[in-house]
Amino acid sequence: MGRPKENSNSSVSFAAVVAGLFFLLALYCAVDPFKHSLVANFPDFETYYVELPPWSQMPTARDSENSLQKSTIMFKDQVQGPESVAFDPLGRGPYTGVADGRVLFWNGESFTDFAYTSPNRSEICDPKPSILSYSKNEHICGRPLGLRFDKKTGNLYIADPYFGLMKVGPEGGLATSLSTEAEGVPFKFTNDLDLDDEGNVYFTDSSTKYQRRNFLHVVFSAENSGRVLKYNAATGETTVLVRDLHFPNGVSLSKDGSFFAFCEGGKGRLLKYWLKGEKAGTTELFAILPGFPDNIRTNDKGEFWVAIHSRRSRLASLESKYPKLRKFLVKLPITAKFQLLLRGQRLHAVLVKYSPEGKLLQILEDSRGKVVRAASEVEEQDGKLWIGSVLMSFIAVYDLH
């Protein structure tokens, strides 16, 4: 009769130990004495509820052949973090923005400096061994993200998260500022852009609270201060078209110019903003994505290529509904990489193509990250997909034929 009582006491002791350890962990996270958490220097950091699209509405298609593993790695260690890939009106390039703040141009034999966004460049902006080592000086050196050429003038338009919407002439050099605020609210995270035939620019400001070097804070907080804006080429005025967005990112006009599609990264979906017709000035759902997107680009047929940096996980769906759980997790003394793994967001490249009507046409991926570990943008040019990423030190090229 005595042994069950002993087992009972042992169970109680074990439960007490577990409860005590959990209490100590919670206390450590609340105090964070060694400032190891991601939000250690952000006392006002807060998490919010975000309603993700229903799991049942997510596309289930997968690329079982992992087609992107057939991609060719180009320019290895010659470009660091090439987010956006562009070709000029003469078809030359690629041009790409890299982590040290420059826009580079491939002249057929080598990369040369084409443009830069910051007037304050110094030795602190010199190339470094690791892509991640640039983030602390991004606000000084600049960080070109979205790139677009005006096909009529040859001017290159640049979205720099710290210096705003910018433009540089066909000869390159220091870019000039076009816009840095709207409605009296400065841009904090200018991200991507596209131009219409009149030279008006449609672009995204992913957050008015956090800078790009703190992009994980935008992700984990699920704050919705993001905006889509328009720069009027004739008047120089910038207006807000869509507001209260969760990490808006890539933007690309339809082939006929009747609308543009843009990525709402925090919700894993594409939205459509009508520019012409009866619906002009309104926004509607375009497509629900299988994961969290970065940039979007339109090909010559009017189809849309979307780069997805990670598939959506069940855990990410759960965390979206429980902001307090998310806040507890980000206070753990672990690195950003492990924070993402906790959410089930294992990086692997996914490229998805949609019709102008929002129909899923094709999906390509490298689920094991053997060749293309991550994708920020995909540009279709002459039957090939040029794949850039802020996390890679090369550009991957996939032959559609």
Question: Please, could you describe this protein's structure?
Answer:
With 401 residues, this protein is an alpha+beta fold. The protein is built from six helices and 27 strands. It has helices at residues 2-31, 138-141, 215-221, 314-321, 323-330, 336-342, and strands at 72-74, 85-86, 95-97, 102-106, 111-116, 147-149, 156-160, 164-168, 173-174, 176-179, 181-182, 185-186, 190-195, 201-205, 226-231, 238-245, 248-253, 259-264, 269-274, 283-288, 291-298, 304-311, 350-354, 360-365, 377-381, 384-388, 395-399. The radius of gyration is 23 Å and the shape is globular. It starts with a helix and ends with a strand. Keywords: Glycoprotein, Vacuole. It comes from Citrullus colocynthis.
